[in-house]
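pasting for ref
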Amino acid sequence: MKKLFLFALLAPALVLAIYDMDTFDVNHWQTPVYNDGRWGIDVTVGTGAAGGIWPQPLHNCYVFGAGPWFGAIVDSAVPETLCTFMYYQNSGGTEMSPTLCRYWRGGTEDSLDRVYRYAGDWPPPLSRFPMAPQVPRSDMEMWCGFGDSLAENHVPPGRPLGIDVYTTVYGFSDSLARDFFYLKYELANCSGESLRHAYFGMIFDADIGQYTDDMTGLIRDRLFQIGPDTIRVSNTGYMYDYDTIENPSSWWESGTPGIVAAMVLGTPDSLGLTAFKKFLQCDEDTAVDAEQYLSLAGYDYGTGTYAPYDTIDTVPGDKVELLATGPYSIAPDSVLTFWYVIIASPCSLDSLAIRCKWARDIYNDRLAGIAEETPNADVRMTNQGATLVHRVLSLPVLPSTIQTSLFDMTGRQVMALRPGANDVSRLSPGVYFLRRASGTERGASSVTKVVIAR
């Protein structure tokens, strides 16, 4: 079994909130998800075991553990380079706690600080989590929030940055989506000061069966010709088995090993993947904030050489990948959003490319640009200014002679509206005009500007 070196970090002290785990389990994927930033690792087994399983019902383990890293330069008398990790490959640990920064000084456990899952324990209560989604956007959805304010969770000389992270996991039950799931990370700057030269990344510790013979690869931007179709794949790091052979064991039941990948789908300012670094799992120096920050920024942490994309891998081993993006400047009280998708496929890059296309298509069609509905997404029937809506446009009950329609900027009617809730999630974000007219020839009409937000 794989060994972890800094075991004290594996199970943080239960000081403020409730450390919670639930299982994402839809289609071919099964993985634990924790409200301290980690996913994949199964902490119920000894010092931790691989818990990211594909393709279930087979118990073939593909992910030992994963989670984000975030680094930034903090303005002070002497500027500091700090990094907070939400998963560390050598310990299975995290520097986060389930209490958000806005609450951590309360000093008491709160049973509301847990993992919420649809269908079941949903939605997260707005009274404690006003930023949480209320209406699910996928067939299996999970949400949790966590912060880095608990000083004793940080590896010295590191200290808290003052960030909260809200994580949403999305999975779909249809056949096209059977081999992937999505991770949305919303990072909030609660420090009260600007965070400069900030980087965000995901550390991805894939163990494909026996962990000692794994390999890494990067598809930075490549065209695949598959039959009559040309597929472009970019921003994707993947891992595979060196000899495509795995003997039956407690973490591998049967089947030729496949490929597991992480793709960066969405970033602020469309920066995409700006660094892809690979480590051996035993590279213990990456526990220090400065080395983690250098890796996020695309440097070789040992030599200080800028080398953002590690692409050549010839020797098998216990490998870890880091997929990072930046730099960003984050003002106080602002939020940045990052999207990843985790994909598994049979052992060929063509098969992976097809699933990357499906994953991006579903992201564009069902997730990107569609804001979560909140209880306040109603239209007020006035002619003053513009009305902002998200997924639902709600209209009052009017006399049957009143006809209401929605027009785009060119004057084309895009939707006939009815009293009550109207689902506008399929429309592109932008400015529209709501026209209310009498059914009689000389009846009066009114026009209201409507902005459908992302």
